[in-house]
Design brief:
This protein has helices at 11-27, 39-44, 60-65, 67-84, 95-107, 127-134, 146-150, 162-166, 173-180, 197-218, 230-243, 256-262, 272-279, 292-301, 309-314, 329-341, 343-359, 364-378; strands at residues 3-8, 32-37, 46-51, 88-92, 111-115, 137-140, 156-158, 188-192, 222-227, 248-253, 265-269, 284-288, 321-323. By secondary structure, the protein is α/β, with parallel strands linked by helices. It folds into 2 domains: 3-160 and 362-378, Glycogen Phosphorylase B (Rossmann fold), CATH 3.40.50; 173-359, Rossmann fold. Helix 4 (67-84) runs parallel beside helix 5 and helix 9 packs across helix 12 (256-262).
């Protein structure tokens, strides 16, 4: 029976993995999947040897703290695939975990595909020489990425981003509010402090202090937040009681897209949420905060002027970004109120977002699935 090894490293990878598994099974119902994933990949039919949370760490110092555990997981999963030998292995994002694994498997004669280009265009372009030895094919989500791989003769396919096809070009804020039980009349601010434990822990306090600042300067606003699970939700609500008990807040789990679609403005951690908010045509304020060591190293290496995908895809600043010490309530709060109070700016932003949405709106799942099955069918 044909089989695919697959490893996703975080929640966004779990979403992509589930989409890919479903698309492959439409073309090849008997295909088996085994590896590392989350609840979505499990529901799509993946036999997960480890949960995705085992790999969900961010930043250099954070990885150092979890190094022994990550090494143990990689050694275990590597041994499994060398023994069971899937028809192809797919690493979804998590480059520092997946590329070394892919190189070993490729050297052992197993075809390897990496789904989601790392940010080689932002820093460490030199890694392309190593990537060329690790993967038989790179699948990219964004149209500016293939050129980097073609320079190094790495087979590459631009497949678009699955979310761009799943999210309507014209969002329905009223329907989202109705589904969440929110009032049409309220001014609603979404707080999205991230899904990774490390980023979440660093952004909860500044996000809640920003919400408090906005309340003090704009009257009673309604804040909503989506948390990755119930444990995180309980922790978040405890922080609210300590930091900003005065705010009007409603929390949810498993409803991130609806929460953002219902909002007038989104305050979010840089990452996939920024792409989602862009596709939902929501004005946003982007924040990013890591450990001091990670930031000191990264700021010397990063070669692009922006960290958020909306700005990178546009090639200019469409939305404000606040990093590290700039994650201050009065700074982020003022940016939120600027969006709330300037409808002309919001209209222009929506036009820009719609243009980008159309550029990356392909049948991503089918294109990626076809690429995977082509490689299996072409194996010698």
């Amino acid at each position: 029976m044909p089989s695919i090894g697959i490893v996703a490293g975080e929640v966004s990878g779990d979403i992509l993995g589930a989409d890919l598994i479903s698309a492959i099974r439409k073309q090849c119902p008997e295909m088996q999947f085994i590896g590392i994933g989350g609840d979505r990949m499990k529901s799509a039919g993946c036999d997960c040897l480890y949960p995705v949370e085992k790999l969900s760490v961010m930043g250099i110092s954070e990885v150092f703290r979890h190094f022994r555990e990550l090494l143990s997981v990689r050694n275990s999963i590597r041994g499994h695939f060398l023994n069971k030998r899937p028809d192809v292995f797919i690493g979804i994002d998590a480059p520092d975990f997946n590329f070394p694994l892919e190189r070993v498997l490729r050297n052992a004669g197993i075809k390897t595909i990496h789904y989601v280009s790392p940010s080689i265009w932002a820093w460490r372009e030199y890694r392309l020489k190593s990537i060329a030895k690790s993967v038989n094919l790179m699948l990219t989500l964004f149209p500016f990425e293939p050129a980097y791989y073609e320079k190094y003769n790495i087979p590459v396919r631009f497949v678009g981003h699955p979310l761009a096809s799943k999210i309507n070009l014209e969002p329905d804020q009223g329907a989202a509010r109705g589904q969440l039980g929110l009032s049409e009349a309220d001014k609603i601010i979404a707080l999205m402090p991230g899904s990774r434990k490390s980023e979440f822990g660093k952004l909860v306090e500044p996000f809640l202090k920003t919400a408090l600042w906005c309340n003090q300067h704009a009257g009673q606003l309604h804040f909503v937040a989506n948390l990755v699970n119930e444990d995180t939700r309980e922790y978040f609500e405890e922080c609210v009681r300590k930091i900003s008990p005065e705010i009007h807040l409603t929390t949810y789990t498993g409803s991130s897209l609806q929460v953002m679609e219902a909002a007038d403005v989104v305050l979010l951690a840089s990452g996939t949420a920024a792409l989602e908010a862009m596709l939902l045509k929501r004005p946003m304020v982007v924040a990013y905060k890591v450990s001091w060591l990670t930031y000191q190293i990264a700021k010397r290496l990063i070669r692009v002027p922006y960290v958020s995908l909306p700005n990178l895809l546009a090639g200019k600043q469409l939305v404000p970004e606040y990093l590290q010490d700039d994650c201050q309530p009065e700074i982020m709060g003022q940016a939120i109120l600027d969006w709330l109070n300037n409808t002309n700016s919001v209209t222009k932003l929506v036009d820009e977002f719609t243009h980008i949405h159309n550029r990356i709106r392909l049948d991503s799942g089918e294109l990626a699935a076809t690429a995977v099955l082509d490689m299996i069918n072409a194996r010698s």
